Amino acid sequence: MDEEPILEHGRPLPRGFVLVKKGNVYITRQARKLTLSDGYQLFRVHDSKDRLIGLACPSHIYDAVLLLEAATREDRAASVLRKDALDNTRARDALTRLFPSISVAEIDPIVKRAFEKGSGCIGRAGQIGLEERVGLAVWSHVRHKYTEYDTLLRKGMDREAARLKVRGDIQRIYKKWGGDEKLLKARKGPGAKSRGRGGKAGSKRVKRVGKAQIKKATNPAMTAKVKTSGKRNAKGSGRTSSRRKR
Fold first, then answer.
1. Which residues, 6 or more positions from 164, have their beta carbon under 8 angstroms from its beta carbon?
2. CB crowding 122-134: b at 16 or more within 10 Å, else e
3. In sequence order, what are the residues at sequence separation of 6 or more whose Cβ sits closer than 8 angstroms to the Cβ of residue 241?
4. CA 123 to centroid of chain Cα atoms
5. Model pTM?
6. Which residues, at least 6 apart from 135, have a Cβ–Cβ distance to it below 8 Å?
7. How many alpha carbons lie under 13 Å from residue 81 in its C-beta half-sphere?
8. Helix or strand or coil: residue 200?
């Protein structure tokens, strides 16, 4: 991926740039997209503990992004609601298909807890398939509602030991509801840890920023010129290297 240099804590932003604080996915995505498409350098801004706090982009691009965000806010919110409703419908359909003997009263609590937006639960883990997410959601629901798991934790039992102790009880209910054995096999290991939603995030190559790069960032034409010059220098160094070999 393209490099996004880091502006360390205490270093001023390039002239004409502003901080886009992280938190609004839409604004961050659009700021990155428009900055790069206009030929400017984008910077990652870190705090004193080297944690990412946002991006630095040209102020005129940030102003345009804010206008765009306000103009599309209602449509995007409606789109999210439609997508969430569709996701929940698919989850319910998969739940009744994979667990044909499950009580109707169990369905809504499972879907609401595991698939609710922003919950951080297994149902929102996009890196695994829907059937596995449903299977894990049912497993978790049974563990908390129909076993002594939470009581064991309150009494001080280790989490993995508690999971191992109630595993047989979960399996019995799981099978009673018609759960497929293949879904049980996804539970590896005696304690069967649930998988979180994050997974391994794709990472961008980063580097620390020097004054020359900050100056270059304010002028897209200069950035393009330097890139072209770099390619020519690389070709030249290749010819020099071949001559030396001869």
1. 190, 191
2. bbbbeeeebbebb
3. none
4. 14
5. 0.54
6. 98, 179, 180, 183, 184, 186
7. 6
8. coil
Backbone angles phi, psi at 208, to 5 degrees: -75, 150
CB 149 within 8 A of CB 110: no
* Distance in angstroms (rounded) separating the CA atoms of residues 41 and 216: 8
> Which candidate, 118, 117, 141, 152, places its Cα nearest to that of 194?
141
Encoded amino acid at 184, one letter: L
pLDDT of res. 191: 44
Q: Give Cβ neighbours of residue 143 (< 8 Å, ≥ 6 apart).
A: 149, 163, 166, 170
- The CB density around residue 64, as the number of other CB atoms within 10 Å, is 15
Q: What percent of the chain has pLDDT over 90?
A: 47
Residue 55 φ then ψ, to 5°: -120, 155
CB 46 within 8 A of CB 8: yes
Hey, what amino acid is at 182?
K
Question: Rounded to an integer, what distance in angstroms lies between the CA atom of residue 166 and that of residue 64?
Answer: 55
Mean pLDDT of 97-125: 79
Q: What is the mean pLDDT of residues 125-130?
A: 72
Q: Which residue has the higher pLDDT, 230 or 181?
A: 181
Q: Starting at the edge strand that comes first in sequence, how are the strands of the sheet with 6-7 ordered? A: 6-7, 43-46, 52-58, 17-21
